[in-house]
Amino acid sequence: ASTLVLSDPLTADGAAPPATQSAVTAAAQLGGDAIELLVVGDTPPSQVPVGVAKVYHASTASNAVSETIAATLQSVVENKGSYDYVVGTSSKFGSTVIPRAAALLGVSPVTDIIQVIESDTYVRPMYAGNALAKVQAKDAQKVLSFRPTSFDKAPLEDAGAIESVDATVFDKAQWHSENVSKSDRPDLGSANVVISGGRGMKSGDNFPILEALADKLGGAVGASRAAVDAGFVPNDLQVGQTGKVVAPDLYIAVGISGAIQHLSGMKDSKTIVAINKDPEAPIFQVADYGLVADLFEAVPEMTEKV
Amino acid sequence: MRILVGVKRVVDYAVKVRVQNNTVDLSNVKMSLNPFCEIAVEEAVRLKEKKAADEVVAVSVGPKQCTETLRTALAMGCDRAIHIQTDRRTDYVDLQPFAVAHLFQKVVEQEEADLVLLGKQGIDSDCGQTGPMLAGLLGWPQVTFAAKMDLEGDGMMVERETDAGTETIKIPSLPAVVTCDLRLNEPRYATLPNIMKAKKKKVDTIAADDLGVDLEPHNPVLDIFEPPPRKEGITVESVDDLLDKLRNEAKVLK
């Protein structure tokens, strides 16, 4: 009775990514006998989270489609061991692969888990995090995904022996191209500091004032859905119920009113700062420190003094 | 080409739900068409308008009142609707995506659909499971989080949101399941004449219990509770004051 963790795509250095480090921590709380890791992609991992007893690598093209990854996961689950738990992350990658794999395995999955209560009982948010559900997984085999920000990252160590397994290629969908925004800043989902802008930024041209502060603090830049909808910044910066969920040590919300949908993506941050000129903005209700000020003055001043 | 589009009736996005007696209180709460399903309906109707689709069929699972939600989809331009009726709560408590995906599978097979368009998630359960599970059950290709769709030959090119940006997936030939994300389109408002016309469109009702699908949740919800409140914050007077607090009280800055 062991646990198989499906890795998210490896980092540029070939290591298991932060979301998967968190999934391994969560997997350890399930209490299975051993944790095994499956990597599907063009290279085997150089580093894996501590706690992983065995690593499988299924070799595919560099951008395997989700159907291939799900089918490969199914085949490893059915052929390699008797897995009580099949685990992934609730990143966009995990949210695409895990439910499909669950359907192939005939299991009803529990996704986006934020807490493990017992080996079969978990907590997951609903209604943009305004309600938390305690859920018991009754299928014999459990297919689960964990919210990365809710679990500590297991440290990495060099990967030992890696067993090659066959990929199951699905050819009715083909990867064609990608458009990835390159940034030297840390990844939004795992940064320790996040500075997000909202409609109050007025224009995408004003985001560099947030970037300057982010660079000084070693942080990432995010945005509210309002800022994304207004076309200020691309969608992959969106923090919220339908964007990325972040929980950094420090979250600075700039010119963000604080719609429910946004709060659900950041309210688990350790310290929240809100800068907004409207003292009635709902964001102040979740902020640890609120500053009622003109952001175009306050943010540059912060950047200068920090 | 026949498109099946999923239409979920959910608590309106502007409502902050109340947790009461270990559940989410749904009495007297405004219900609406799930915003992501609205985007799916819009995309399907546009394909019809471009003559790429012959027929758009809206499908909803839920109580009697779902017919109102289906009428909204019909007023936006769907041709007819199928209501899979059940009195179970559809927000995960009594009916879960695993069962919904199996119900949709039956309808997709009966209707011989070529394309299924769904929202990327319901804003009640926040699961986002139905699309990829349905595709898995059917053995069809899937594209989740679609941001742009272009039909091409017998298939299509779909740009989708990823964790790092976007990627484009080629589906050489249909059928396929696509789940729709925010940027795909901006849904239209139904006009009064179209709302009137929608009243005459056909809505077939099927009892969910008659479809031979196990509706019982495999993952029973034992309890629903409110998240712990954050401790009350304070207002600071100046940037200096803020930086002092961040350094010496919260200790998140050096």
Automatic annotation (TrEMBL), chain B:
Cellular component annotations (GO), alphabetically ordered: mitochondrial matrix
Ranges where the Electron transfer flavoprotein alpha/beta-subunit N-terminal domain occurs: 21-215
Protein's recorded name: Electron transfer flavoprotein subunit beta
GO biological processes: amino acid catabolic process; fatty acid beta-oxidation using acyl-CoA dehydrogenase
UniProt subcellular location: Mitochondrion matrix
Subunit structure: Heterodimer of an alpha and a beta subunit.
Keywords assigned: Electron transport, Mitochondrion, Transport
Job of this protein: The electron transfer flavoprotein serves as a specific electron acceptor for several dehydrogenases, including five acyl-CoA dehydrogenases, glutaryl-CoA and sarcosine dehydrogenase. It transfers the electrons to the main mitochondrial respiratory chain via ETF-ubiquinone oxidoreductase (ETF dehydrogenase).
Source organism of the structure: Seminavis robusta
GO-annotated molecular function: electron transfer activity
Keyword Transport: yes
Residue stretches in coiled coil: none
